[in-house]
Design a protein that fits this description.
Blueprint lengths: L2 E4 L2 E9 L10 E5 L13 H4 L4 E5 L13 H4 L2 H15 L4 E6 L1 H12 L4 E7 L7 H6 L7 H22 L6 H12 L3 H13 L13 E6 L4 H13 L3 E6 L6 H4 L1 H16 L7
Parallel strand pairs: 3-4, 3-5, 5-6, 6-7, 7-8
Antiparallel strand pairs: 1-2, 2-4
């Protein structure tokens, strides 16, 4: 698994999945995870994508196998995340790339596309809000005064398990998936999750979206809450190149609920803009 090192900054880890024909020089597709997760959460997408694209799955600093900043207050913020993404993209040596981000990873993608459009070929958003609304923040607090206090008291795994039951997955979800999801999030240091929760509570992509010019795909649950639907309307009105596809769900974790459906949407969207076939004869 590649590691990217820079003086004075956390080491960045990413997985690289490449089953493309070596003579085709296939483009890169970067899959960026969201809050408290890691590149491992994309595992079920890889078989659908890696035959046609070189798949890059970074761990955000502080999560997965990437390094943790010495000072969380100054070392974990949107600017640092964007700097890390630019460093990884440049290290691949073949910009522009395709970018797909889920949830907070999608928010970062909107900022990246607005600030550095020359680095991206396409932008795909998976259940990515413009901002984390107050209803969601209250839901993540459970019976505690704040989201942060819930994390501090419950710890990473118990908090993730509670979030799974409350908002993330439909009734009848495979218990193995629920346990795996909570176990993986449970590996995240709680102090990192607390700092990230403050970032997620305040970050807002709205000021950036008028500047997004790259072809953009939005993948969203069909029966999302009204607050999310209003954000979708804002995206439609202000991103000129946006195409939205709805999938039959009301839950945020469509990334893991229906990976084949979403991965194929992203695959065909990217291939369409590359002018290449993504099916074999």
């Amino acid at each position: 698994m590649p590691e990217f090192r820079r003086a004075g900054k956390p080491t960045l880890h990413y997985a690289l999945d490449d089953y493309t024909d070596p003579w085709r020089h296939a483009p890169y597709l970067l899959l960026q995870h969201g809050y408290g997760r890691s590149g491992r959460f994309w595992y079920s997408w890889v078989p659908y994508l890696s035959r046609f694209y070189k798949i890059v799955r970074p761990d955000l600093r502080g999560l997965g196998q990437s390094g943790i900043p010495d000072d969380l207050e100054s070392g974990l913020n949107v600017e640092a995340y964007i700097d890390d993404l630019l460093a990884i993209i440049d290290s691949l040596g073949s910009a522009p790339i395709h970018y797909c981000g889920e949830s907070l990873g999608g928010i970062l993608g909107m900022v990246l596309a607005a600030q550095h459009p020359q680095r991206l070929r396409t932008l795909s958003l998976v259940a990515a809000p413009l901002l984390i609304n107050q209803d969601t923040q209250r839901a993540f607090a459970f019976d505690y005064p704040t989201w942060q206090e819930a994390l501090q008291t419950m710890g990473s795994r118990k908090w993730a398990e509670a979030a799974n039951s409350a908002t993330r997955f439909p009734e009848g979800t495979d218990p193995g998936l629920l346990a795996w999801y909570a176990d993986e999030m449970g590996k995240s240091p709680v102090e990192v999750l607390i700092r990230m929760s403050r970032i997620a509570s305040t970050v807002d992509a709205t000021p950036y979206i008028d500047r997004i010019r790259v072809p953009t795909l939005g993948l969203y649950p069909e029966h999302a809450p009204v607050t999310i639907q209003s954000q979708e309307q804002t995206l439609k009105e202000r991103i000129r190149s946006l195409k939205i596809v709805h999938v039959p769900s009301r839950h945020h974790t469509i990334q893991n609920i229906m990976p084949a459906t979403l991965a194929e949407e992203v695959l065909h969207f990217a291939a369409q803009h590359d002018g290449v076939a993504c099916r074999e004869p």
